């Protein structure tokens, strides 16, 4: 029994044709995407329909995955063919914004916060290349990236009828893809494994109800016990017209002017953050930070307890 040849075959949701021009597949996903927009049309009534945020979520849940699936592969199709999918994408964005057909599409992109399909395909391709480059044991690394011609940055074969994923990406993006320069995955210690900081309260009562001499005495006792530490002081202040924060580390003093709408809690928090960023770059590793905001300390303690 002879097996009859076919012009196209569906495999894992992708329609592969004998000419590898992706025309049947693009037509297929276009029909599916158009049908999925019916739910947006039903819920798009100006008076009793859903709001724009819900319409956007529906579009990104039901329609956009259809256009994204396999886009890294069929991105090698001709630009004129890929533009057929843009019409569906634009139709969905217009439904989200309840815009008329004459509305400029660039304005709709900015209003909805949804990028063009070409940008999404480039992002997905870049993300795939980064993942493959980081996991060298993955089979795709040997097939796609571990190529002598690619690593040597040889000219791209413009006459190739079926360009590879990376060749297609390089043609559309005028950059040289150097696998060695791709940032590896971070190996830093995750937050839940960090040691919990130690908190020491100089006074248990409110600062306004405590005599300054008592606070000073408690401070001097603490400094006398921890003589080998570098002392840091943070503070935030807020007035009617200005908001700012300051940090003092050893003999160095830093200050920042913040937005006047920022709260005193924000000012105290930014001061502590700036202090931590500064001491992170110093050679000394033993620091003691003095802060007069109990709410900031409680916030850190609550975060540490809920990890």
From TrEMBL:
<dbReference type="InterPro" id="IPR036397">
    <property type="entry name" value="RNaseH_sf"/>
</dbReference>
<dbReference type="GO" id="GO:0003676">
    <property type="term" value="F:nucleic acid binding"/>
</dbReference>
<dbReference type="InterPro" id="IPR012337">
    <property type="entry name" value="RNaseH-like_sf"/>
</dbReference>
<protein>
    <recommendedName>
        <fullName>RNase H type-1 domain-containing protein</fullName>
    </recommendedName>
</protein>
């Amino acid at each position: 029994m002879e097996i009859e040849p076919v012009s196209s075959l569906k495999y894992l949701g992708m329609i592969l044709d004998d000419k590898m021009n992706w025309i049947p597949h693009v037509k297929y996903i276009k029909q599916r995407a158009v049908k999925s927009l019916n739910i947006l049309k039903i819920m798009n009534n100006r008076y009793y329909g859903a709001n724009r945020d819900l319409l956007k979520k529906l579009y990104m849940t039901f329609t956009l995955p259809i256009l994204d699936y396999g886009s890294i592969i069929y991105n090698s199709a001709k630009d004129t063919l890929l533009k057929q999918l843009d019409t569906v994408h634009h139709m969905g964005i217009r439904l989200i914004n309840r815009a008329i057909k004459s509305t400029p599409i660039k304005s709709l992109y900015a209003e909805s916060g949804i990028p063009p399909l070409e940008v999404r395909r480039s992002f997905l391709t870049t993300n795939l290349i980064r993942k493959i480059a980081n996991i060298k044991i993955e089979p795709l690394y040997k097939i796609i990236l571990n190529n002598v011609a690619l690593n040597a940055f040889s000219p791209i074969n413009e006459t190739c009828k079926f360009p590879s994923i990376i060749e297609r990406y390089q043609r559309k993006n005028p950059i040289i893809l150097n696998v060695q320069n791709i940032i590896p995955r971070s190996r830093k210690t995750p937050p839940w494994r960090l040691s919990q900081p130690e908190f020491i309260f100089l006074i248990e009562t409110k600062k306004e109800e405590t005599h300054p001499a008592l606070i000073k005495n408690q401070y001097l006792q603490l400094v006398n016990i921890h003589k080998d530490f570098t002392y840091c002081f943070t503070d935030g202040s807020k007035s009617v017209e200005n908001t700012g924060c300051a940090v003092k580390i050893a003999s160095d003093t830093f200050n920042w002017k913040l937005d006047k709408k920022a709260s005193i809690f924000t000012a105290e928090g930014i001061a502590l953050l700036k202090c931590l960023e500064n001491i992170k770059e110093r050679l000394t590793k033993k620091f003691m930070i003095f802060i007069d905001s109990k709410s900031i300390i409680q916030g850190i303690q609550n975060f540490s307890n809920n990890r």
